Amino acid sequence: KQQKLPVGVWNKKKFYKKVKVEDEVFKVGDDVYVCTPETVDLTEDVDHICELCKKTGVEEGADGKEVETEMLECDYCVRSWHLRCLKLDHVPDETFWSCPMCVAAPSGIAAPQNFHERRTPCGEFLAGRLCLARIESIWANVDELNDRDPKVREEAFKFIARLYVLPEHTHTGRQRHHIRREVFLTNIKEEENCAAILMGAKVLEPAAFRSSGGNDDVYMCEYSYDQNFSRFRRRTEWEDSDFSEDECDIEAKNILWSETESSDDDDDDYDHRKEKRKAEKRAQVRQTKADIAASKKAAASKKGANASSEWKEAIGLGKSGILAIDSAQNNGSRTAIERARKALQLSSIPAKLECREKEREKIMQFTKNAIGAYGGASSCLGNSLYISGVPGTGKTATVREVIRTLRQEAANKKVPKFNHIEMNGLRLQTPQHAYSLIAEELTGRRFSPSRAAEWLEKRFKEGKESDGRVLVLVVDELDVLVTQTQSVLYNIFDWPTYKASNIAVIGIANTMDLPERLLPKIASRLGSGRVTFNPYNTSELIKIIEARLRSTGDYISDGKYDAITQNAVQLASMKVAQISGDARRALELCRRGIEIAEARIARERDSGELNCVSRCGPNDISKAQNEMFSATYMKMLKGLSKHERIFLAALLLRTRQLGYKEVYVSDVLEVHEKLCMNHSVQTLPTGFETTIVCRLHSMRLVLADPGYMRRLQKVSLNIPQEQAMYSLKDDMLCADMRWIKNAL
User: Fold this and answer.
1) Of the four, 324, 342, 384, 631, which is 20 to 30 A from 241 by CA?
2) Residue spans of alpha helices (H) in 205-266
């Protein structure tokens, strides 16, 4: 009789790299389907059924043999379609293909397919009756392995499952840009029995997913999701060294079978009982499934028939059963104006950033020099780079493009491998939480800010727990980390000065003179490495917009496009370049102009108008501009007095000079007085400054401290800075003070 362990004594665990479950080998790091209490038996080898002809992809040929026909699967609703039913000669070239139902749906994604007829692991997972997880570690309790009870020995093998979730289970929900097989790797880890593994699956990065062919059990994962903080983070660990060797037993090189061969005399009897139990369980599940199907068959059939007829009417199938689809080159859109609208969306990431070649080359040279790409050891000792520029000039996008390019080169072994951490100061609870975020990225463990600061100091000073790779730390919104003592910035820029640190820091901020306003000890460590992103001018904005439009393939010749006129592009670029030079504003203005033109064209065609302009013109851009700048506060800005407008201009100038959102009223009044004296405007009488601040605060154009503080009040702008600059630079609103436009 086996001796039981006393209470409080833990069973000894033995870790393994592989395990065999029902003749299939699973390793640490594999992606698998895991059964849940809601899981039922699946029908194996179920063929895909075409949504139009309701036939499978395997048909009987002229010689009586089975012939496979080409089918397309929608990346958004996972429906299957024959190429011949869609009247297509070849598979479309677009990355993610939308079926006719998704194109006709108002949200861009058709209702999920009814998986009652076709039960597959993919369908069960998408329906929430099966889990998708990654195997983090495999082990077995040694005491249970030596137990004489076969059932105990069978349940001895366990694994840690790190779960994947669908977009529906995140705090944002499913968005239009999410494809049907997109998942997120969470930080939820559960202990499961190895017998709960159903079969293997594959979770790939976007590039590998596009070239995978779209099999049933292949998914795309680009981001990880922290459910505790409701935070997404782009995955960067697509490497062979994703899993460390210390999680498993190095000496256990052989496969340990989950169905072990026992040396007892009752092996045959045990196997017979085991197979009998499996057969009884399968029969019970089949009976339960039949009962459920019988009870819901009538309702499901009626609902499916109604839904099918509604969808066919919506997409224009009628009684023919065939739908002709435009063989467009991009995005599956049917018109040039729709493709242009999608290309101008901010979520559409271009393959190359225009008009930033010089800045990109400087950042690339700095990063390559830090990771040692030019041969020899890495020279990241004291290496720091400061990137500045107004919002919307491509600072963060250029850095991400450089990091993405170098990671691809590292995967191809052209440059040394390196680690990368990107941190945004606006997403931190406090500046001190930067320590916690960096430590969590490096170790995967959570630290308090003080504990994380101590660990990072030892890590970069002494090189403890370092993997030998260079760490490229990108700190976006660097000015948010400025505190009274400036200790956080000092430590971040002090780490590269240690010999064992292997870290290079890239700081990004909107303030150009931030290093000059920091303490000398920080400015000295920041060094002279700087890259300045100037605002885009009119010609550069035109080039950026035209590059997006050329990517759709709908252009007649240089400067002539099917969706928008050249004059409209020039007008939008000129308007934005005069205000801020923000490329995002220019793209949004053109996109909104195309939407207005699309609605106008539909109205004109319905009314039967013959002289219908089928492109977005300058009039549409003007309407879009009026919409973007017709908010309630824009109407308030039009009714401001002369000195109130001068006060807003002084506030804009002062916040730009200091780089802070909140400034003292006394500082703003100094700039206000200088503007009045330089342009022969009568200055304010004593005491009227409080009246101006109170009036602007009552209209919620600014936020201010209580009025009794007078010149010690802190005041900040409560409206978008671009909108305030637009109203102050407008020739009609400030016709009597055109000098404000030059001052700003």
Assistant:
1) 384
2) 206-210
**What is the tens place of the pLDDT at every residue in 657-679?**
776 778 888 888 888 888 888 88
> How far apart, in Å, do the first and last CA atoms of the chain sit?
89
**For helices 538-550 and 336-343, what crossing angle results, to 10°?**
130
Query: Which residue, among 150, 166, 135, 138, has the nearest Cα to 33 in the 3D structure?
Result: 135
Sheet containing 702-704: which strands, arranged edge to edge? 663-664, 714-717, 702-704
CA torsion angle for 660, 665, 670, 675 (degrees, to 10)?
80
244: left (phi over 0), alpha (psi -120 to 50) or beta: beta
β-partners of residue 476 are: 424
Q: Are strands 702-704 and 560-561 parallel, antiparallel or unpaired?
A: unpaired
What would the pLDDT profile of 165-221 be if each residue is shown by its tens digit? 998 888 888 887 788 788 999 988 888 888 888 888 989 888 788 777 666 788 989
Who contacts 380 (Cβ-Cβ below 8 Å, separation ≥6)?
A: 369, 370, 371, 470, 496, 501, 502, 503, 504
Taking alpha carbons only, the member of 434, 515, 435, 443 closest to residue 476 is 434
pLDDT 10s digits, 494-503:
898 888 888 9
- Distance CA(675)–CA(548), nearest Å, equals 41
Is the distance from CB of 315 to CB of 323 less than 8 angstroms? Answer: yes
CA distances from 215 to 77, 110, 127, 206, 550 (A): 14, 20, 18, 14, 32
Structure-token pair, residue 691:
């009246």
> Would you call 183 exposed, middle or buried from its count of C-beta atoms within 10 A (0-12, 13-18, 19+)?
buried
Count helices and strands in the chain by DSSP H and E runs: 24, 26
413 CB burial (10 A radius; 0-12, 13-18, 19+): exposed
Q: What is the pTM of this model?
A: 0.51
